[in-house]
Design goal:
With 186 residues, the chain is mainly beta. It has two domains: 77 residues, no CATH class; 84 residues, Alpha-Beta Plaits. It contains two helices and eleven strands, in the order E-E-E-E-E-E-E-E-H-E-E-H-E. The strands form two sheets. Strands 1-4-5-6-7-2-3 form a seven-stranded mixed β-sheet, with no helix packed on it. A four-stranded antiparallel β-sheet has the order 9-10-8-11. It is elongated, with a radius of gyration of 17 Å.
């Protein structure tokens, strides 16, 4: 599912890496040239929930710079997660939550995913959503699918799981990240 917000600039693909590893290319809104950065650098607001990076995530503003004169890239530079704010220009107020889902018998993965996202997202501007959902993997007979969320800071992982369970979804849900949250078994 592509998770876009109303555009306040052109949409571009950027690259996220961490010391050259964990390469992924989310969509972002180009907010214009970045001051005090290498030539060609841009300020961008992410409009996807990255899978390889817990932060930055949907809504964060970062500075991306050309690598080899081409790909606009943000590099976490090996900074510990607890220090990652130093690499983010503007925190969008969200953090990554990863939830596994297994549709109940007779329910398609698509229908389960839509019901899951409806718990948090409202029609229209996703900036008003309690969490923005992005499908990562589909479930199969051997493992649940994965949904990545960019959850508001005021919505703890336990609250995410409580809200999902209260919705009586057509799927079982399991918290995968962050792991320090309370019991997530059902």
């Amino acid at each position: 599912m592509m998770t876009h917000v109303a555009s306040d600039g052109p949409t571009i693909k950027v690259c996220l890496v961490n010391d050259g590893d964990d390469f992924e290319t989310p969509w972002a809104i180009d907010l214009g040239p970045a001051d005090n950065a290498p030539p060609g650098s841009r300020r961008v607001r992410l409009i996807n929930v990255p899978f390889m990076h817990a932060k930055p995530t949907w809504g964060d503003v970062i500075v991306v710079s050309p690598v080899d004169g081409q790909q606009l890239t943000w590099d976490g530079e090996g900074v510990a997660y607890s220090e990652i704010d130093a690499r983010i220009e503007e925190d969008g107020g969200r953090y990554a939550v990863i939830v596994g889902y297994m549709p109940h018998a007779g329910t398609s993965a698509s229908d389960a995913f839509k019901a899951f996202c409806a718990v948090f997202e409202r029609e229209g501007d996703l900036s008003q959503a309690d969490a923005v959902c992005e499908g990562a993997t589909l479930p199969n007979e051997e493992r649940p699918g994965r949904i990545y969320l960019a959850a508001n800071y005021d919505l703890s992982p336990d609250m995410v799981m409580e809200r999902l369970r209260a919705a009586h979804l057509p799927c079982d849900v399991t918290l995968f990240h962050p792991v320090e949250a309370a019991d997530d078994t059902e």
